[in-house]
Amino acid sequence: MAKIKHNNFIDTVDEVFSGAKKEGVMHLYAEDKSLNGRTIQIKGKEMFHFGTTGYLGLEQDSRLKEAAIDAIKKFGTQFPLSKSYISNPLYAELEAKMEAMYGIPTIITKNSTLGHMAVIPTAVRDEDGVILDHQVHWSVQTACQLLKLRGIPVEMIKHSNMVLLEDKIKQLMSKCKKIWYMADGVYSMFGDYAPIAALMELSKKYPQLHLYFDDVHGMSWKGKNGTGYVLSVLKEIPDNVMIMGTLSKTFGASGAVLLCPNAKLREKIKVFGGPLTFSAQLEPASVAAAIAAADIHLSVEITILQSELAEKIAYFNELISKTALPIIVKNDSPVFFLGTAIPITSYKLVQNLFEEGFFVNPAIYPAVPVQNTGIRITLSRHNQKEEIKALVEAIEKYLPIVLKETGNSLSKIQSAFGSVETHTTIDIIVDKSSLQLKYETSISKMDKPTWNELLGQQSTFDWEGLHFLEVAFANSDEPANKWDFHYYIIKDKNEIPLIATFFTYGLWKDDMMATESISKHLEEERIKNPLYLTSKVLGMGSLFTEGNHCYLNTSHPLIEEAILMLLQEIETLYNHLNADMLVLRDFEENEQLNRIFHNQGYLKVTMPDSCVVENLEWDTPQAFTNKLSPRSKRHFIEEVLPFEKAFDVVIKNELTIIETEQIYQLYKNVKNNNLAFNTFTYPPNVFIAMVTDPNWEFIMLYLKDEDNEQQQGQLVGTLFCYKNSNYTYSPSLIGMDYNYVREFQIYRQLLYQGIKRAKELNFKKIDFGFSATFEKKKLGATVIPKVAYVQARDNFSMELMGTLQNDDKTH
């Protein structure tokens, strides 16, 4: 069966960033003729700068500037030669000062990203394993992709979860010589710290554990000689720890610095560490500025600078403590995160703060989960107390305004982040006077004619189809196939429908639309743990159905208000159920929906294409053939029509117990051989419900007995078809005997027989669902691109998918 079209992460990120750019809060340009660190000019407006990562403000220090200028005059703008051959004249002095700062020799790299690319593949051996913290910097995760090409297991745990870390260590300890845990010292979004003390205790318990820290956000403002947060806790570097620091950001220059206590490994990295060998070295100006910064770090002045910043951090914390502002993590780092939960609130708040003269950074997906959107506020020594106070006052002023304007609330933010403490709440403001909502948990309580008028005639979710689904899934004994049902109809005060839809709540496999290789890996894990990497999902429609699950009266003037009402209702249910993910699915591309859903905190992702046949105006196989394209016509004549005579085609509405068992086995054959869209295997009771439902019928392919054509041969294929309102024919599942699939083109034959049957019954449309779009298109199906909109509690499962690959060590 053809592979389905999978989601494109890059397209999703582009969609998010494009939305932020349209709102005027990202991809901006500074317009200053000169910079002072305290203010920045954007679109003609001068703002106080609360977005820098130069926490000590050394990038504006005159000593660093003069050193850089002097180096350019003496040595030029660059030294264009690999450092493997020769270093520029200033390198030796910088290396000596770095050794004086840290107490051991260091390795200097072009930047931290290239540093990780050089160090990690060299330090991690083929017999080792890696565990990534979910929130470790992108550059570390990217460097670890190179390890997977060598068959090195790369695992991931939820952020700073020591219980999960220990579980992973236990899993890897018999397979790996060293186990590397990779984390940030200070995390760049929330400003929280790695649990270093707990990690060191864990490394005593498990001597195989080695720690690799990216401490670029902990550099300079913390630790003796400004050597960073990690060393401020450790005091000296143990043999099982490596640290990547930075010479940019707070240090004030450019480049990065690696701390490796193992002299032999350090030399190996320096001699052949990928980018260290083949990339350009730091420019003379950068090296000179770093030397000047190192002199400051080696003097008592660094403690004075650190104290000045600490005073401003303490002042900000004091002001915040007197407010109800949702700061997510409260500590003494210079990074603060104000939660807004949904993007539109963040955009509006940033816009208002810009107008008030404060530059801050919106924090959006993929840096944070889409429902954990917020504003990152960073403090530097340049910031003065009066503007810090004014910033807090401006946020206090505008946050309630934008919450009301965007239908948000502090309670919703608290729910999104889980641990936010608030002193007051602001209720969601929605005018319901002109709209009325009907909500039920069974289709039996919905008016049948109304439901079928709005959502009938497609797939298997007319009123009768949903009754079947409730029989099959609502009371299942299997957790994997037990669904709750939720129905919504929104009308205006004149009883005119604006929206009708339904949701199901149940378990989904996290790899449902991941690559087949990832699903294969996970299915082996699920032999031991059937519910491994599954999530509780509140999803529009159901995993059994496909099509337009949401009726929208787009011409109604209140449609946008109705959509927002629906979103509020389902998000209330989502939080009540404590689901992991909320999915609105199977929409066609729509600019209005893109805007609404993105602003309310949903990511748009590409779904598999839908396939529909609507041209059934033909009477003979030859007439059907003539309606196909020339290429499809040739395919039909050569690959489909000649095989029809090999089968007895039987249509059945009722099946014996033995026949039901046979078709169930054929279904499982297909399910087990197709991981392109990986769902749970439906239990036998679903098929028993089909057999007893008058709207289902079964197209059965029996191989003809060559000796006696009158005797029915072996059953080799079944198409499970739902008849919707005498209008839409829906082949929903397929079963095949894989011993005969290729020889007799069973899949193609079943599709063709489904088309013939729909024509015979005078149906107007065939809903072929998704997957195998290439095969269905060759038989005249129209392919319709579909998208979904998704919220998730965190990015963990999605990012974990990126760390998985088939690897003998992990099987």
TrEMBL record:
Residues 47-395 form the Aminotransferase class I/classII large domain. GO terms for molecular function: pyridoxal phosphate binding; transferase activity. Its cofactor is pyridoxal 5'-phosphate. Transmembrane segments: none annotated. InterPro entries: Acyl_CoA_acyltransferase, Aminotransferase_I/II_large, AON_synthase_class-II, PyrdxlP-dep_Trfase, PyrdxlP-dep_Trfase_major, PyrdxlP-dep_Trfase_small. The keyword Nucleotide-binding does not apply. It comes from the Bacteria. The keyword Transferase applies. Keywords: Transferase. SUPFAM superfamilies: Acyl-CoA N-acyltransferases (Nat) (SSF55729), PLP-dependent transferases (SSF53383). This is 7-keto-8-aminopelargonate synthetase. It comes from Flavobacterium xinjiangense.
